Each structure stands twice: as structure tokens, then as C-alpha cells.
Hints:
The chain has one domain (3-394): Growth Hormone, Chain: A (Up-down Bundle), CATH 1.20.1250.20. 79% of the residues lie in helices and 0% in strands. It has 17 helices and no strands. The two termini are 22 Å apart. 58% of the residues are buried.
Amino acid sequence: xxxxxxxxxxxxxxxxxxxxxxxxxxxxxxxxxxxxxxxxxxxxxxxxxxxxxxxxxxxxxxxxxxxxxxxxxxxxxxxxxxxxxxxxxxxxxxxxxxxxxxxxxxxxxxxxxxxxxxxxxxxxxxxxxxxxxxxxxxxxxxxxxxxxxxxxxxxxxxxxxxxxxxxxxxxxxxxxxxxxxxxxxxxxxxxxxxxxxxxxxxxxxxxxxxxxxxxxxxxxxxxxxxxxxxxxxxxxxxxxxxxxxxxxxxxxxxxxxxxxxxxxxxxxxxxxxxxxxxxxxxxxxxxxxxxxxxxxxxxxxxxxxxxxxxxxxxxxxxxxxxxxxxxxxxxxxxxxxxxxxxxxxxxxxxxxxxxxxxxxxxxxxxxxxxxxxxxxxxxxxxxxxxxxxxxxxxxxxxxxxxxxx
Length: 405
């Protein structure tokens, strides 16, 4: 990579890792919070859903804002925002307060991915765009791993009533990243030149609703549905998996760490493999192969009565196929939309999927009050990945597409 590419890559990968750490802290402390405040499964899942619903709005607005004031400036604002509300979550005195703070955190959480993905897509050369943007996605697994490590350390050293607060307090760390961004990340020439050209010509900036115009509406809808399936399946699994391991499999917080570590290792490998495959076989084929494989692995993990040792091994392919397709989403959405509305289009589609997919943790929680948790996870995961497969099948291949000016 060139120096500008490298600086942007480091900033976005680190930001996404810290973003992942902030978000995954909640599923890891979910059991402690339910016990402390006597919260039912459906209501506990609502906090994860509220975060994701807010992120849907935040991602769309942040993408639109990045088209107007710049990618880099908007990226810094989103990082500072979710860092602040992660810290405030540590001081919540009731579940309602925690729900409010996690909801507000979602606005910055959604915006960070949307703006970072656009920034990477415009800085990296087309022939390397898939593997570079996809490799940034691998930062999520590192952040998830950091959250699990923090859980193992803090819950072994502190009482559960304090440990979960200490974990949320760690979420302020991303704020330090803005110092690096200010020094090492420049606005993409492509986006800056496009804004200058439009200003010089006296052209108005495309309105927020431009992505719903008849000429681009089919692309917007299909991309939004693909994102819904991809994220709905992922959140249905990852939000409830720690609780599944504890309640259904009878593992302690410390005992479940190895299972989550195997899942995260598979996820990290999946992100890197997906990044390479996005350039090798194309974005669309990556989505089709991984969504089909994810259905098979989820059913095996939740429905086949296998011993815990076999589940430990199966966690690797579960993480691999349930995560790796995300590596293709950043470059894919970047290539689908023109520069003047790229932030808005990419922010809406990805975060529409995040918002609708956000319903899945809550639905799993409520359904688990009627049927076994494993069955509830399987039902919503299979539905989500089937939607993802069908939408990806209907979308065009974008590999190697040059971005317009």
C-alpha cells in the first residue's frame, strides 16, 4: 500500500475493531444484567435491538453527512459519539438507563462503519479494494476477542455486579483513535474533487432521498435486503450464543471462553478469506457460497445432539461462514453507488439491514420463552441467510468496477 492507503487502512481497521469491542460487550454481560435487574429474555434482547435500530438511522445520516462535510471529519465525530455512550453505560443505575445509553451509542456505532467503508473504498485502488476493505472487516473479530479476554479477566477478578460496569468503561478507548486520524488520514481525492466540481458548477448536492429515485431504487432495495439477511443471521447467532453456551450447554463464564475463542478465530479467518475471495471469485459469489454454508453450519451447531468437545471444533466453521461474507460488503456497496451519493446509499443500505436485523435478537428472546433457545436461534438464522442468498442472487457483480468522479 501507499502511505495514504496505509494510514487509512490502519485507522479504519482499528476503528472497526474498537467498534466491535464496544458492541460485543453487551452480549457478553447479558446474563449478569438479566440476573442483577431481573430482566426477561425478550426485554434483555431489546437493548441489543435498540442499539442496532439506532445504528440504522445513524449510519444513513452519517453517510449523508460524509457526502456534505467529508469522510474524515464525519468518521471522527462518530467515534467520539459511541465512545462517550459506552462510558455512560458503565454508570447506568437501572435497565431503562442502560437501554437509553445503548440506544444513543447506536447512532455513532452505525455511522462509523458506513463512513469508514466509503473512505476505504475511495482511497484503495480497484484491484486491491476487495481484500483491503475486507481485511478491515477482520478488525471486528479482534475487537470481539478483546471483549472476551476482558470478560475472562474482569469476571475472574471482580464481582459480577462490578465486572460488567468495568467492561462498559473500556468502551471509551476508541476516543484516542481520533488523534491518529487527525494526523494520518486525509480526505479521499475522489470525494473532495467531486464536491469541488459540484460547487464550482453550482450544482445542488443530491438530497437524502435521491437513492430512492426510480433509476436507482431497485439497486437500493436489493442491497438493503441483502444486508438485512446478512446481519439478521449474524446478530441472531452472536447475541445469544454466550447465553446458549451457559444455559443450554451448562458452561460457566470462564468455561465458555474457549468456545467463544474458537468461534472468534473462525470469524477472523473467515474475514481474511472473504477479503481475498471477494477479489478472486467476486463479491456476489462470495455471498452465495457463504450464506448457503452458514445455513448448514448453524443447523448442525444448534440442532444435532453432539458433545461439547465436538461443539468446540464446530465453532470454527460457524464463525468462518457466519462472518466472512461481511468482507465483501464494503467494496460491494461502494461500487454500487455513484460518488455524489455513495455515503448516503452505502449508509442507508447497510444500516437498513442492521436496523431490520436488529429485530432478530429480540424475536429470538421472545421465541425462546416458548421453545428451546437453540431452536429459536436456528429459526431466525435460517430465515435471514435465505433472504441474503436470494437478494445476492438478484444483484449484479461489481468486482473491478472503477469509481466515477
